[in-house]
């Protein structure tokens, strides 16, 4: 049955990719830098430099004096059991830190990108249907301009206008510092209030590219023969657009969103930094500045694996959505 | 012998002429070229255009953080240095990083694409697998990790951007090679006895070349934006001024919350315009060069 | 008269100028006629059809002429009325490349149901029943209505598209290259189906094709187009057995007969003209072996030779 083979093939590919990613991560941090020891063993204990003998002991403990392939096996074991090590800066497990910040990033990415995707679809449809018209051209120019702006700069401008100048929104964080919330709803309201600007930034930053691709895909569909047939039959324009055409254009959209996932994550890193939004992106930024390598490595690995898994899920969804894959090309006349 | 060379020359002349002609038809392409020429001009002649010297330390501390006025066209930074000067000189680095990163990733991408498309089989599988894996990993986090490990310097940044950015070109080149391989002229050249290397270099490459150029132009804009992001995050070379670095310093001295808008807005506008310029030109080139695009 | 097209002029606006795709053509058909519209690629046959259906692309302009279908003025009708009363109900079509006329993400039966329910207020069951009837009529197993288009073979897709076009019992069916993309055996089957439908339903049709043998098979009238103009038209036997226009003669004498002896091909020299700057006078004159001086200056009028046989040529009409 076509569908099962398809899913199996994709799952296999997914697993291979995850393995490759883990391996790349291993080599990045152990083989590439001039002195891997500095990266894997914290140079400081508290405020003092570690003595040479203590460092040598730690090296032995971490198995860094063993041959590379042995280190790799240990590393694999660690990753698969969820042991990402401890932060250099704070005495906590990397995995715990990640777990804490994860939600904030998810909320931000979800809200921002849902808005972005929705707008890209609606505006893309209108622009493609009235191709060459005023709306099409102006939205094209806006999307092109937006996608040429540095992502962090967009956030900066928005903050400048709406927070610094107009004071409508807070400057950073998820909730106001030192605020006491009477109940859960107040908390959510405060959180939401803080969420708006970064979410708008996320939406703007991702909209440009998504719109351009959506419009292009819809233009392809609109010039297909079956759409012309629909018009010849006398089906109403609205039905043609939103039923016959859109259903076809959705397929590449799934693929495109999956491909742009990496781009969305990059945007999250920059946006969280600008807005001091305490998610994984901000944590990456901080860990780079404080040379907290275990945290950096851990977050990088986790988000990459999540992106690969999401791609796999998107592939499966695509398989169900496209009848040519779902039903397979088994029967003929 | 002379006759043969002559026709070759006139062959290329004709093609270049028609290409230029078609490019001039494209309004977007012309706007893009105009923008780019403007910024390149400013960057190259920065030392003539600016009345202030570019220096890491010499600023007038009494003139720190002034908004635009008659003396300082775009205001000053936290050390009293003229921002307009910094922006002009900053263009040099931003553009240089963009060009170099695009060229390097273009070379890598072309090599990979040619090999994958021409040799097929396991070579192709391997290269395409690598391409897919790099594509799936989120770009900026990977570059951040690389930059953090390798250290921040002008060449490291270029290296980091190139190493990630060649995948798009590789895919496009491979697709083109696959379609070219079917054409009879490759078969006939092979029958004459040309070696693989010769075919790749003298027959396939010239045909793929216009496509590569269009890709590279688009990549330059991309690379400039990436450099800006990396610099902003503190991963740029601190001894160098680029537009991204200017923004980095702006944010780190709190220009945002203190409303030093002149420190934040102009560099961003420059980046946006230059990126747009390359996008326009790249798009115009792609229209001319890409056989698929020509239908629309 | 079922269809009356008079002096139709359809140009396309392009950056390099107007493409004179259809330049002053006139056609007419009675009920029960099957008109074959023949000519090379790019001669304007498809454009004529698109103009009749008012489905021209955005840069197409009908600059002159009238089209009357069963008394209705098609060119001046409101879009909404056209959509409700004419499209598919009186006038339907089978597009070129029917393979792609079916939407790949919907089941075939559902697509026909959608078309039915646009024009008739029936519930889904009734509509599905009609689909069953139609499938049987065109020779598809009704159980296949739940399949997707990619599960159909080329011939089946063609039948499905024909079924689709017959949903509302149209007065006129226009078929653009209905069998070109099919292999010879399937071609024969589809042509047989078309002949069947013609006889059973009394279907009036316009068959657009460059393949003259197809026209000979099903049509009773023929019109030959060249470079946006009709050069000869009349009933099928007259046109095919006694072609008078040099172009028609060139086309029709090039058919080798299985029965006859070996004959040399006499291809018409030259290529079809650029329609932005067509040759002055008679558009065929650069390729015509009998071209005279007047052919280079004056466009020939469409003149009736005898009994419904029309021709547009200076040689025969002086």
Give an overview of the whole structure.
The complex is a heterotrimer of chains A (333), B (296) and C (318). Chain A is mostly helical and 333 residues long. Helix content of chain A is 76%, strand content 1%. Chain A is built from 14 helices and 2 strands. The model of chain A has no long low-confidence stretch (mean pLDDT 84). Chain B has one domain (25-49, 83-289): MetI-like (MetI-like fold, Orthogonal Bundle). In chain B, helix 2 (27-44) crosses helix 4 (83-119) and helix 4 (83-119) runs parallel beside helix 12 (261-289). The radius of gyration of chain B is 23 Å and the shape is elongated. Chain B starts with a helix and ends in a 7-residue tail after the last helix. The model of chain B has no long low-confidence stretch (mean pLDDT 83). With 318 residues, chain C is an alpha/beta fold. Chain C has one domain (3-102, 152-311): P-loop containing nucleotide triphosphate hydrolases (Rossmann fold). Chain C has helices at residues 45-53, 79-86, 108-119, 124-138, 154-165, 184-201, 212-218, 236-241, 246-252, 293-297; strands at 3-14, 17-29, 34-38, 60-69, 72-73, 91-94, 172-176, 204-209, 221-226, 229-235, 303-306, 309-311. Chain C starts with a strand and ends in a 7-residue tail after the last strand. The chains are: A mainly alpha (333), B mainly alpha (296), C alpha/beta (318). Chains in contact: A-B, A-C. At the A-B interface, helix 1, helix 6, helix 7, helix 11 and helix 12 of A face helix 5, helix 6, helix 10, helix 11 and helix 12 of B.
Quick structural overview:
Chain A is an all-alpha fold. Chain A has helices at residues 2-30, 36-40, 52-61, 68-80, 94-129, 134-148, 151-165, 184-222, 225-233, 237-259, 261-275, 280-289, 293-321, 323-326; strands at residues 44-45, 48-49.
Question: How are the elements arranged and paired?
Answer:
The complex is a heterotrimer of chains A (333), B (296) and C (318).
Chain A (H helix, E strand, L loop, with lengths): L1 H29 L5 H5 L3 E2 L2 E2 L2 H10 L6 H13 L13 H36 L4 H15 L2 H15 L18 H39 L2 H9 L3 H23 L1 H15 L4 H10 L3 H29 L1 H4 L7
Helix pairs in contact in A: 1-13, 5-6, 5-8, 5-11, 5-13, 6-8, 7-8, 7-11, 8-10, 8-11, 10-13, 11-12, 12-13
Chain B lengths: L1 H24 L1 H18 L1 H4 L33 H37 L1 H16 L2 H12 L3 H12 L1 H15 L2 H9 L3 H37 L10 H10 L8 H29 L7
Helix pairs in contact in B: 2-4, 2-12, 4-5, 4-7, 4-8, 4-10, 4-11, 4-12, 6-7, 7-10, 8-10, 10-11, 10-12, 11-12
Chain C lengths: L2 E12 L2 E13 L4 E5 L6 H9 L6 E10 L2 E2 L5 H8 L4 E4 L13 H12 L4 H15 L15 H12 L6 E5 L7 H18 L2 E6 L2 H7 L2 E6 L2 E7 H6 L4 H7 L40 H5 L5 E4 L2 E3 L7
Parallel strand pairs in C: 3-8, 3-9, 6-7, 7-8
Antiparallel strand pairs in C: 1-2, 1-4, 4-5, 9-10, 10-12, 11-12
Helix pairs in contact in C: 3-4, 4-5
């Amino acid at each position: 049955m076509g569908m099962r083979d398809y899913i199996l093939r994709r799952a296999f590919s997914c697993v291979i990719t995850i393995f490759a990613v883990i391996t790349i991560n291993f080599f990045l941090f152990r083989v590439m830098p001039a002195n891997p020891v500095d990266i894997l063993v914290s140079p400081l204990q508290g405020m003092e430099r570690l003595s040479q003998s203590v460092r040598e002991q730690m090296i032995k403990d971490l198995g860094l004096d063993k041959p590379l392939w042995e280190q790799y096996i240990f590393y694999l074991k660690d990753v698969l059991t969820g042991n990402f090590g401890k932060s250099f800066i704070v005495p906590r497990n990397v995995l715990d830190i990640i777990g804490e910040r994860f939600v904030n990033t998810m909320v931000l990415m979800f809200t921002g990108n849902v808005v972005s995707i929705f707008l890209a679809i609606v505006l893309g449809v209108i622009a493609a249907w009235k191709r060459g018209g005023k709306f099409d051209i102006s939205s094209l120019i806006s999307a092109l301009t937006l996608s040429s702006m540095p992502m962090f700069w967009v956030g900066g401008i928005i903050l400048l206008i709406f927070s610094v100048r107009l004071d409508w929104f807070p400057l950073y964080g998820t909730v106001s510092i030192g605020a006491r919330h009477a109940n859960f709803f107040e908390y959510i309201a405060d959180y939401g209030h803080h969420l708006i600007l970064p979410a708008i930034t996320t939406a703007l930053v991702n909209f440009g590219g998504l719109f351009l691709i959506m419009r292009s895909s819809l233009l392809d569909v609109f010039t297909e023969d079956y759409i012309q047939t629909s018009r010849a039959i006398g089906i109403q324009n609205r039905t043609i657009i939103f039923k016959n055409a859109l259903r076809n254009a959705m397929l590449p959209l799934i693929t495109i969103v999956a491909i742009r996932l990496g781009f969305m994550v990059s945007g999250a890193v920059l946006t969280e930094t600008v807005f001091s939004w305490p998610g994984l992106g901000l944590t990456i930024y901080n860990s780079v500045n404080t040379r907290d390598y275990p945290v950096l490595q851990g977050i990088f690995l986790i988000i990459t694996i999540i992106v690969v898994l999401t791609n796999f899920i998107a592939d499966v969804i695509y398989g169900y959505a496209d009848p040519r894959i779902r039903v397979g090309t088994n029967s003929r006349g | 012998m002379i006759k043969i060379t002559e026709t070759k020359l006139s062959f290329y002349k004709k093609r270049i002429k028609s290409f230029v002609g078609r490019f001039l038809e494209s309004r977007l392409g012309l706007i893009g070229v105009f923008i780019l020429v403007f910024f390149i001009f400013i960057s190259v002649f920065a030392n003539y255009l600016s009345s202030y010297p570019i220096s890491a330390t010499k600023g007038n501390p009494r003139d720190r953080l002034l908004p635009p006025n008659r003396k300082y066209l775009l205001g000053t930074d936290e050390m009293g240095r003229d921002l307009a000067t910094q922006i002009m000189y900053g263009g040099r680095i931003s553009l240089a990083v963009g060009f170099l990163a695009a060229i390097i990733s273009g070379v890598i991408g072309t090599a990979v694409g040619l090999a994958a498309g021409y040799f097929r089989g396991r070579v192709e599988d391997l290269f395409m697998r690598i391409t897919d894996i790099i594509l799936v990993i989120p770009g900026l986090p990977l570059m951040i990790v690389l930059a953090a490990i390798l250290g921040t310097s002008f060449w490291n940044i270029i290296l980091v951007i190139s190493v990630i950015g060649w995948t798009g070109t590789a895919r496009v080149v491979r697709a083109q090679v696959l379609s070219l391989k079917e054409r009879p002229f490759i078969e006939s050249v092979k029958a004459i006895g040309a070696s693989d290397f010769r075919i790749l270099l003298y027959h396939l490459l010239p045909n793929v070349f216009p496509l590569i150029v269009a890709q590279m132009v688009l990549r330059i804009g991309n690379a400039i934006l990436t450099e800006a992001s990396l610099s902003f995050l503190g991963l740029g070379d601190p001894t160098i001024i680029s537009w991204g670095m200017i923004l980095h310093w702006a944010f780190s001295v709190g220009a945002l919350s203190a409303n030093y808008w002149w420190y934040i807005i102009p560099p961003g506008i420059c980046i946006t315009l230059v990126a747009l310029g390359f996008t326009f030109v790249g798009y115009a080139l792609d229209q001319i060069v890409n056989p698929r695009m020509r239908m629309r | 008269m079922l269809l009356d097209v008079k002096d139709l002029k359809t140009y396309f606006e392009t950056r390099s100028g107007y493409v004179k795709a259809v330049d002053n053509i006139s056609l007419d058909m009675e009920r029960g006629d099957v008109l074959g519209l023949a000519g090379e690629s790019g001669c304007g046959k498809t454009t004529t059809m698109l103009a009749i259906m008012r489905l021209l692309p955005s840069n197409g302009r009908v600059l002159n002429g009238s089209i009357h279908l069963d008394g209705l003025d098609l060119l001046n009708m409101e879009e909404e009325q056209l959509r409700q009363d004419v499209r598919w109900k009186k006038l339907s079509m089978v597009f070129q490349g029917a393979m792609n006329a079916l939407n790949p993400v919907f089941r075939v039966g559902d697509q026909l149901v959608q078309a039915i329910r646009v024009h008739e207020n029936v519930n889904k069951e009734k509509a599905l029943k009609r689909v069953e009837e139609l499938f049987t009529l065109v020779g598809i197993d009704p159980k296949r209505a739940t399949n997707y288009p990619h599960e159909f073979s080329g011939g089946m897709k063609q039948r499905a598209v024909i079924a689709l076009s017959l949903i509302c019992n149209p007065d006129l069916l226009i078929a653009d290259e209905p069998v070109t993309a099919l292999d010879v055996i399937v071609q024969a089957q589809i042509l047989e189906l078309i002949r069947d439908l013609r006889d059973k339903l009394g279907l009036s049709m316009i068959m657009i094709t460059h393949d003259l043998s197809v026209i000979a098979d099903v049509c009773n009238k023929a019109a030959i187009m060249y470079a946006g103009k009709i050069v000869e038209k009349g009933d099928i036997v007259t046109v095919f057995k006694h072609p008078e226009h040099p172009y028609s003669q060139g086309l029709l004498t090039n058919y080798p007969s299985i029965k006859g002896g070996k004959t040399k091909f006499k291809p018409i020299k030259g290529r079809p003209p650029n329609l932005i700057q067509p040759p002055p006078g008679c558009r065929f004159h650069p390729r015509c072996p009998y071209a005279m001086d007047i052919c280079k200056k004056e466009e020939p009028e469409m003149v009736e030779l005898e009994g419904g046989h029309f021709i547009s040529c200076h040689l025969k009409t002086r």
